[in-house]
Specification:
It is a single chain. This protein has about 240 residues and is of the alpha/beta class. It has a domain at about 1-80 and about 195-235: Rossmann fold, CATH 3.40.50. About 35% of the residues lie in helices and about 25% in strands. The protein is built from ten helices and ten strands. The strands form two sheets. It has a six-stranded mixed sheet with strand order 6-7-8-3-9-10, sandwiched between helices. It is globular, with a radius of gyration of 17 Å. It starts with a strand and ends with a helix.
Amino acid sequence: MSTLLEIDALQAAYGASQVLFGINLSIRAGEVATLLGRNGMGKTTTVRTICGMMPAHSGQIRFSGRSIAGQRPDLIARLGIALVPEGRQIFANLTVREHLVAFAANRFSAGDPWTAKKVFAFFPQLAERQHHLGNQLSGGEQQMLAIGRALTTNPRLLILDEATEGLAPLIREEIWRCLATLRSAGQTILVIDKYVERLIALADHHTIIEKGRVVWHGSSAMLDADHNIWHRYLGV
């Protein structure tokens, strides 16, 4: 498998406050990877920098061999990176169907592309609510819609930032089912989440950051075998 995303010595700051101190991360096509760490350690900043929503102070971000550091978010999205953001960011005045149609694209000529119809089959609850506005949905329905919206761009890399945060257990299970299905279909995914047990079952490898630095990287088998890492860096 070829390397799809490669981050090398990435540094980023909010003004004079540096947040990332040399982050390294690599994801090959078809892999599921995680970015783990306690709150405030730089996970979302890393994602925002990948997606062009904040500038890299130094270091490299390459996607499919192409440097994307410093490019506009819309150009990065067109290259095939889709973000399911923390907080969902659903448009209150768009219906479910309008969300899925407005962002739909098949730039890489997928043979069986994600469309609104396919998303409705994937998330039947959204089909039932397709004419409701974004602000009329429950938190779980909004999260399904955020994932469906990202999928309709038919991304090469899907990034999920805290996709199960604040959801009821049954809805969380639906999201994990969704991710397992996407993995089986060969979708490349980067996940930020706190449910380590579920991530071990889902992902190929994991990167843990603390105070903006990578402090551990390894496979699911390695992480499962050493719970001291969980207690030291993840607070579980």
